[in-house]
Write a structure and sequence with these properties.
Length: 424
């Protein structure tokens, strides 16, 4: 959410941001509604002032004058009873439009409507040349008895999975490995609920635009979170922190749930796009300083790259275009990891800076040394998400006999050098 004062003073800059992000928001309608709200507020304030003056005058008036003043007070009350609900309605309409107003994107972001305008900035590692016919991850899982897609679908529906034997243990080892990397980087580890209230999803930015991606529970009273970022971003909602308490650097390991609405027919086979997954998430709440936000952006990106390098996986770095980065993003860089069976890279990490866009929605504020209150800046990035990363690990590190090598960095967590067949 942008500051309404900024929108009033910089309408063309906001209009350009709307165009660059490929949105359909009618800025003129927003500005007209804002003017109507401000005019109605002034009218109500004037009437309230008259009511107060009339009440004071009535208290001092002579008996023969008081009756008329009381009647005038009743008339003023009827006016306010009509105008105040109208103001609340207009304010709610304006708030909904403000929810759909984008952050102005970083000037270095590629401009374009979708991911075809994303730009590869660098590549790390080379795709492996196999001396045998490699299997895709589904075939490896079926060959070794490491999972069961058919029974998972019977129990939970499509895009579900069951991991078995070594692969189940491997997933847990990877998550703990990533969590330890975050702790070593100075982030505070957190456990967070899977259930979240509607206001937290508005604060995060997932509502109202992406409501169809979220599972509702208990008749829509609460929802299943699609990322720990939703909860982390709302922990300090409504608080005013001291500047000395910033930055807050959190990491959370949590189950995540996404409906994947609109993705019918895409990645329906295997582990690439599932409804429930696990993720270690990075989150930073820092003071409203662009240089500091940029430093944290590079730090979080470096952590994720370090994890992929430790997993011995080839990847590339992608500068995400304005139309692909989403409503609230100032800058987004994705890491895409090589998938041998598809002969292409697929996204595994997404590093985002949102400036004060989320903070204004959530009321994330701090007081500086001079006593002035500011909205904070927020950033987030994936540290590791499973089971998607298993696709890359299985396919890139497979052996001709169907076993899969475990990267040296993860071996202490897994306890073996290879994933071996499980009892079927």
């Amino acid at each position: 959410m942008l500051d309404i004062k900024f929108i009033r003073e910089n309408p063309e800059a906001v209009r350009q941001a709307i165009e660059k992000k490929g949105l359909t928001l009618e800025l003129d309608k927003l500005l007209e509604l804002d003017q109507e709200v401000q005019a109605l507020k002034r009218t109500i304030e004037k009437i309230q002032a008259e009511r107060n003056a009339n009440a004071k005058a009535a208290a001092r008036a002579k008996p023969e004058e008081r009756a008329a003043m009381i009647e005038r007070g009743k008339e003023i009350g009827r006016q306010l009873a009509e105008l105040e609900p109208r103001l609340r309605t207009l304010e709610a309409q304006l708030k909904q439009l403000l929810y759909l107003t984008p952050t102005l994107p970083w000037e270095g972001a590629p401009v374009g409507p979708d991911d075809s305008f994303n730009v590869e900035t660098r590549v790390h590692g080379n795709p492996r040349t196999f001396l045998f016919e490699p299997l895709d991850h589904v075939a490896l899982i079926e060959k070794n008895g490491w999972g069961d897609f058919e029974r998972a679908a019977k129990v939970s529906g499509s895009r579900s999975y069951i991991l078995k034997g070594d692969l189940m243990v491997y997933e847990q080892a990877l998550l703990r490995f990533a969590l330890d990397r975050m702790i070593q980087a100075g982030f505070t580890p957190m456990s967070v609920p899977s259930l979240t209230k509607e206001e937290a999803l508005y604060a995060h930015g997932q509502f109202p635009a992406a409501r169809d991606q979220v599972y509702s529970v208990d008749g829509g009273e609460v929802y299943l979170a699609g990322t720990a970022e939703v909860l982390l971003n709302y922990l300090h909602a409504g608080e005013i922190l001291a500047e000395s308490e910033l930055p807050r650097t959190y990491c959370a390991l949590s189950p995540c749930f996404r409906s994947e609405a609109g993705s019918a027919g895409r990645d329906v086979r295997g582990l690439m796009r599932v409804h429930q997954f696990n993720k270690v998430e990075q989150y930073v709440l820092c003071k409203a300083d662009l240089d500091e936000s940029n430093r944290w952006f590079e730090t979080m990106l470096s952590i994720s790259e370090g994890i992929l390098q430790a997993l011995e996986l080839p990847y590339r770095v992608i500068e995400v275009s304005t139309g692909d980065m989403g409503l609230g993003k100032y800058r987004q860089v994705d890491l895409e990891t090589w998938v041998p069976s598809e002969n292409r890279y697929r996204e595994t990490h997404s590093c985002s800076a949102l400036l004060d866009w989320q903070a204004r929605r959530a009321g994330l504020r701090y007081r500086d040394e001079r006593g002035k209150i500011h909205y904070a800046y927020t950033l987030n990035n994936t540290a590791l998400a499973t089971p998607r990363i298993l696709v890359m690990l299985l396919e890139n590190h497979q052996n001709e006999d169907g076993t899969v090598n475990v990267p040296k960095a993860v071996q202490p967590y897994f306890g073996k050098e290879k994933l071996e067949p499980s009892a079927l």
